[in-house]
Write a structure and sequence with these properties.
homodimer, 353 residues, alpha/beta, 16 helices
Chain lengths: 353, 353
Amino acid sequence: MAGMTGPDGSRFLRACRREPVDRTPVWLMRQAGRYMSEYRELRAKYEMLELIKAPELSCQVTMQPIEAFDLDAAIIFADILPPLEGLGLKVGFEAGEGPIVYNPVRDEADVLGLASLDVEEATWFTLEAIRLARRELESRGLPLIGFSGAPFTLACYAVEGGSSKDFTITKRLMMGRPDLWRQLMDKLTALVGGYLRAQARAGAQALQLFDTWAGLLSPEDYAEFALPYNRAVIREASQAGVPVIYFSTGTNGLLELVARSEADVVGIDWRIDLGEAWRRLGPGVAIQGNLDPVALLADWPELERRAAGVLESAGGRPGHIFNLGHGVLRDTSPDNVRRLVDFVHQYHFEEGS
Amino acid sequence: MAGMTGPDGSRFLRACRREPVDRTPVWLMRQAGRYMSEYRELRAKYEMLELIKAPELSCQVTMQPIEAFDLDAAIIFADILPPLEGLGLKVGFEAGEGPIVYNPVRDEADVLGLASLDVEEATWFTLEAIRLARRELESRGLPLIGFSGAPFTLACYAVEGGSSKDFTITKRLMMGRPDLWRQLMDKLTALVGGYLRAQARAGAQALQLFDTWAGLLSPEDYAEFALPYNRAVIREASQAGVPVIYFSTGTNGLLELVARSEADVVGIDWRIDLGEAWRRLGPGVAIQGNLDPVALLADWPELERRAAGVLESAGGRPGHIFNLGHGVLRDTSPDNVRRLVDFVHQYHFEEGS
């Protein structure tokens, strides 16, 4: 069983601190989701935002993969957009369109007009879901991960008004009005920092920052327009005494900058060899990743071969948390997830490898 | 004026061979396109495929940016999908949907059922457009670039049936049926190799391979399922005696593998410092790139600062071809394009830098 000696001594939290563990810990981004029939049944009755805003339902979804698989951590079921309501933005999800911000931030008046509501009030439902889930996880000795969008990624949605291929409106504002950009990012940084601290107080034992769109930036722009704000929220979250994971995709050209985020753990995508990424990040961080989510759609022997490849790339060194390089895809077979999790736990590294 | 002493001695072709040049050569991916009113006027009268399949019109579009700006090379106006008709696939473009393959390749019967039509017959319109454009460019001393989709990227469209975020159907076939994948890739490799040679015979003086979706692959998968086929088509194209440019995006985690493609020039996206990318690729290749296309939407001082950054990153070493890290965006101002091209030509490197 996962867990070892209760959450503080759990494999997952020990690995976050790069302490030796008996088995490589494993959890999966989007481990609760449409690939599970239990989730689809709930989604047939409730809209996405209804699930997120009802703490009992969020808690229930959070626990679905924990009940089905031998995972080493739960992650609270929530979404990165609702906290933007703390700035007075109106968010929603439209079928086929994905996330929407109905009143996007496009100019000086929009930036100056952003509210700064009490973050705990604006996100009460997720904080309450964290309290509920912690209680359920306690008896299993499993830790709970809270999360937030990183300031840059939240800015992408806030400015663009939804998802996009290039986020040109956002990047145009960033390049053209760096003064405005900084004001917007300062507000997002305060929001995210407060939200992460509130999650830790509510019971989250680790915090993951999702920087989904960081891979749209050149190294120079990342260093100037995203990294300082990541560092600020990570410092603030670290003061709560919990490890922070920084996950981004498409950033394999600027991992040396990612390493400067001061995160305890860096999550990487599958488009780089894990061992090479770890060398470039340096020995001061733990690493999370990085199986291609499509591998979970393959037959078991192929999936097994690929999972072994990721484990061997990490070489059994303390500080590897097995995960995918992105979220679980909806066509994934739960049986493959079960076998993958068990395989990671049973994997035996050769002596001296 | 661009060109120096006729196309063979042109800045662009000299830079492809890493020979010293008087000024850094510059051309832009998608330099003919919707950002130009001349192009929009034609598109109001003709569908995309009508333009591509009428050699006089393709030639006319090819020349539009050459007449407007002091570019160092033209690239034939065409698309990567129509050559797939040489395998019996039916391709089209649907408004709002992008490229479509109406009879995608999904299983063994589909792969075995692929035709191998005469590639010159299947692509006669682009080959004829190349002959026409060469004639017009000759008097200006400017070289013409031909191009093709790389085998992996063409496989993505052929299997998926159109564009996609993750191309999971394609990658699932690749992982699950590597035997079938190899058969498909062999057919695509023969098609692309023949198409590139035919373009060189028709008058193209350089050939670019677009591997738009290579960034979906892990290093291991790239090495096994894409690289050998790239190398094969690049070797075949090289036998025609023209330089080959290999362009991909999202591959900054596996540039060392990209370097093994045996291309003369490697095109990179903007998500890595150009100097660092060149170090990782090694001194044996020229490099093309890598301004963020969004920079062309900024005001001139900001665009100038960013263009200078790219040039300084290359350091004035022989073998840099200035370009964007991806295609020109449709909101780009032609005036910015003009100023950018002139700026690159006038840029003065400090001695000894």
